[in-house]
């Protein structure tokens, strides 16, 4: 990417040490990772991020009808006031009455957003955009435009909130890997961007890659390889990256506990999200730090978790961030899909609680 938009800031984020001291007391008692201030800060101040999908209700509010922060400019100001330093976009739309109008998904709008980011000491790391499902001149042109907007914004990554394919079949994952290799190389060589996919729980279900075949000639059983793990083996590690949603990975750990092997035998298998990251940490430049409170669901039944503000659930973020490898490389983005309904002040209230608990992580 042309480095005309202050990207050098990214080089020193991991070195900012200061503000750990006051944050230590803010962890919730008993939460893994909310430990002694004598231990190291797991998420440095400059790496504490949020995806704007979490606060989408605030961004979409009509500023003419409420004194609350509304629209990109005011919401970015509020997030910076809370302490966040990194931003992940989830599109570029806001309420039409907000400064800049309804859509900022164009070069002029991206320049406006970039100014607001810079004014508040914020750095944008990624965006959940639409990745072409077919490749032709039109879709490649659209992809290039998305990359150009990312360059204006100073993003280091461009990605999607969807899995590469919703299919369970090996042939479809092969096709997705081929497409993503092409797009990943294009994003890197033309724009200096890392192309990433975000996971949901289904992406860690087992790949159907073994016989017998169904009437359409598709495999009905599995060798025990999980879909997104297979995708990693089929994509170029220089060009294709992942943003693990840690909550959905834990839901997958709860849900997908066995597969039917080629002989028709149910075979237990436990998914370990942390081990997947440890095996190749550079493939995971971004995370969604989304917490979940355990439910009473039996293994393999239901989701196993419900979303809650970061640090108020049962996912062991202290252990995860302390042991994932490549220290200082990763960019965790707090996300909570149901934050707009949070009773402690809506999405911005949830963002405040979650920032303090992210800051309190020690390991």
UniProtKB/TrEMBL annotation:
Lineage: superkingdom: Bacteria
GO MF annotation list: isomerase activity
Xylose isomerase-like TIM barrel domain sequence ranges: 76-333
Keywords noted in UniProt: Isomerase
InterPro entries hit by this protein: IolE/XylAMocC-like, TAT_signal, TAT_signal_bac_arc, Xyl_isomerase-like_sf, Xyl_isomerase-like_TIM-brl
One Pfam family per UniProt: AP_endonuc_2
Protein name: Sugar phosphate isomerase
Organism of origin: Phytohabitans houttuyneae
């Amino acid at each position: 990417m042309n480095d005309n938009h202050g990207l050098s800031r990214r080089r020193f984020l991991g070195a900012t040490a200061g503000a750990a001291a006051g944050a230590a007391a803010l962890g919730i008692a008993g939460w893994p990772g909310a430990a002694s201030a004598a231990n190291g800060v797991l998420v440095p101040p400059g790496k504490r991020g949020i995806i704007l999908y979490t606060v989408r209700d605030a961004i979409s509010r009509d500023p003419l009808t409420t004194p609350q922060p509304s629209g990109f400019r005011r919401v970015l100001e509020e997030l910076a006031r809370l302490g966040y330093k990194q931003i992940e976009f989830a599109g570029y739309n806001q309420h039409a009455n907000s400064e800049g109008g309804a859509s900022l998904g164009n070069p002029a709008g991206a320049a406006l957003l970039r100014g607001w980011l810079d004014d508040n000491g914020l750095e944008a790391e990624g965006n959940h955009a639409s990745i072409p499902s077919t490749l032709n001149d039109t879709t490649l042109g659209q992809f290039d435009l998305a990359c150009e907007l990312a360059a204006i914004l100073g993003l280091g990554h461009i990605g999607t909130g969807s899995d590469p394919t919703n299919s369970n079949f090996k042939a479809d994952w092969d096709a997705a890997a081929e497409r993503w290799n092409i797009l990943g190389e294009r994003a890197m060589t033309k724009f200096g961007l890392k192309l990433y996919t975000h996971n949901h729980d289904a992406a860690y279900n087992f790949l159907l890659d073994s016989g017998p075949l169904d009437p359409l000639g598709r495999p009905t059983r599995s060798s025990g390889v999980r879909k997104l793990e297979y995708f990693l083996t089929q994509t170029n590690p220089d060009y294709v990256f992942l943003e693990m949603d840690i909550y959905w990975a834990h839901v997958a750990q709860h849900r997908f506990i066995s597969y039917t092997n080629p002989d028709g035998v149910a075979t237990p298998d436990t998914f370990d999200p942390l081990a997947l990251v440890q095996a190749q940490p550079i493939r995971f430049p971004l995370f969604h730090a989304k917490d979940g409170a355990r439910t009473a669901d039996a293994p393999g039944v239901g989701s196993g978790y419900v979303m809650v503000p970061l640090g108020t659930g049962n996912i062991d973020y202290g252990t995860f961030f302390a042991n994932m490898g490549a220290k200082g490389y990763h960019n965790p983005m707090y996300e909570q899909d149901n934050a707009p309904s949070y009773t402690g002040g809506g999405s911005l209230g949830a963002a405040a609680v979650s920032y303090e608990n992210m800051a309190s992580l020690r390991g």
